[in-house]
Each structure stands twice: as C-alpha cells, then as structure tokens.
Amino acid sequence: MRTAILLSLTLCWLGQATPTRQENAAPCFHKEREAIDFLLGDWNVDANVRLAEGTWEHSSATSQIKPDLSGCLLSERFTGTRAGHAFTALALMAFNNTSKKLQRVWSDSEHGLLITYEGNRTGNELIMETEILLDGKSVKLRSAYLEISRDSFNLESRRSTDDGKTWITVTRLRYTRK
Which of 61, 82, 136, 141 could hold 45 in an S-S bridge, CB 3.0 to 4.6 Å? Predict the structure, then answer.
C-alpha cells in the first residue's frame, strides 16, 4: 500500500498524473480556488498595451493556464511581443485561506519584479488589486477579469496614482480558447 501511494505521488510530481478536483486530497487545496477554473486551458490572446510614451501597441500572444501543486494553484505562461521584442510572463493564482481572497502573483520579462494581487470573484467579474511604490510614489494596480465565459474573457490592467479615484487602463487582453 505504501509503495502504491509513493508511486502515485511521484507520478503527480513528475506531471504524469494529475488528480481531478474530486480526488484531490492535498492539504493546500481549497474549494474556493475553483472560482478561477474558467482560466484553465490554452489561449490565443489579442493584446493591446499602452507603451511608456502613451501610444497603444497591438499584438498577438498565447497563454497556457494549468493546475499546479495538485490543483492547489493555477500557473500561467504567457508568450508574446512588446515594443518589438519577446515578452514573457508567469502568473500563479490561488485561494488564500487566511485572507479568504483569491491571489495572483505576476512577473514578466519587461519588469522582473513580483507583484501580488488579491481580490474576489463576483458573478462574471474577478477584480484583484495591490499597491506598490513606483519612483517613490504609491501606485494602485488593478487586474480586472471581465466578460468571463467558457471560451473567452477579457483582462484589463489599470493603475491609479490618486488612491483609486481615477484609473488609467494600461493593458487590454482578450483571451479566446484555442
């Protein structure tokens, strides 16, 4: 019996077998994490990004979002271009059982820092926010998943330098299932 359990755990670790949610007994799994299951899959992404000088750039990208750590979190690998060069990003998404909020940690090849967002899904929207220091000033950041459906969703990234009174959209992404 112990050998069968060790073999099962080893196969899961190697990515050869992934338990379904119903079979998942991992201590880190929380049913509330299923609120982001709409993200799972392989995606084509229509990207519109505001560049540093304020102009908008349109490009195409791809994204793969899959379960990780026995379904306790989701990981996203995003690949595209930005300002004429390769752009990649990694996101990890989970449910925080302490704060009772969904979390997203994001890093990309343009900036390199880790940004942690928290928020909740309400109906057809998932809004996550954080606050960072940028050039010595407090900046609020918001990731808004909008128009969520089985085969598509929009992701808008916004920032505010006036404590959330006004928001500037810096990225508009349209994910369409491959």
Answer: 61
Closest to 51 measured CA to CA, from 77, 104, 87: 87
Domains in the chain: boundaries: 30-177
**What is the per-residue pLDDT across 127-161, written as a single tens digit (0 to 9) for each?**
999 999 988 999 999 999 999 999 999 999 999 99
CATH of domain 30-177: 2.40.128.20
First to last CA, the chain: 41
Q: How far apart are alpha carbons 99 and 42 in whole angstroms? A: 30
Report pLDDT digits (tens) over 46-105: 999 998 888 999 999 999 999 999 999 999 999 999 988 999 999 999 999 999 999 999
CA–CA separation, 162 and 87 (whole Å):
29
pTM score over 0.85: no
